[in-house]
Amino acid sequence: IPDMHLLDDLMYNFTENREEVAYSFRLTNHSVYSRLTINSDGLLQRFEWVPEDQEWTIFWSTLKDSCDIYNSCGPYAYCDVSTSPACNCIEGFQPPYPQEWALGDVTGRCQRKTKLSCIGDKFIRLSNMKLPPTTEVIVDKRIGFKDCEERCTSNCNCLAFANTDIRNGGSGCVIWIEEFVDI
């Protein structure tokens, strides 16, 4: 959470191992009370207790624009606030009702233009995208991008793949096998 690192009153800890991925923080100013919450839409908020008002106030939130709302565009679409409308179907997909889509009604969901055949299908590269949720994925941290691509192209259920870590040229592999949202 890059903009939270600007705060001097917090010490952060990020843990990633075979058993868990966890984030925690500790306040260095013991006269301040704070709590971090995440709701069912994926909105992360930090609250601070204001003794004078006897209530919690939002100190920080991950919601920066409409694209930060979980699954705001539906499956196989990406959100970009610099376009109008902000929801755009991924290349190879189209909205079933283009007029409604153009007016911001994305309930029609992006649909594939052609059926998958599994033989000769190609992947397109999406850059500068937030990765979709990883609730239904295959992860292998031991292989690189080329091996990840080969594993995905040999699996007819594979819809997308990416590095698990993009630093220093990338490493690890994550493969999506269910429809993906929130990119």
TrEMBL record:
Keywords: Disulfide bond, Kinase, Receptor, Signal, Transferase. One of its GO terms (biological process) is recognition of pollen. InterPro entries: Pan_app (IPR003609), S_locus_glycoprot_dom (IPR000858). Residues 118-183 form the Apple domain. GO terms for molecular function: kinase activity. This is S-receptor kinase. It comes from Arabidopsis halleri.
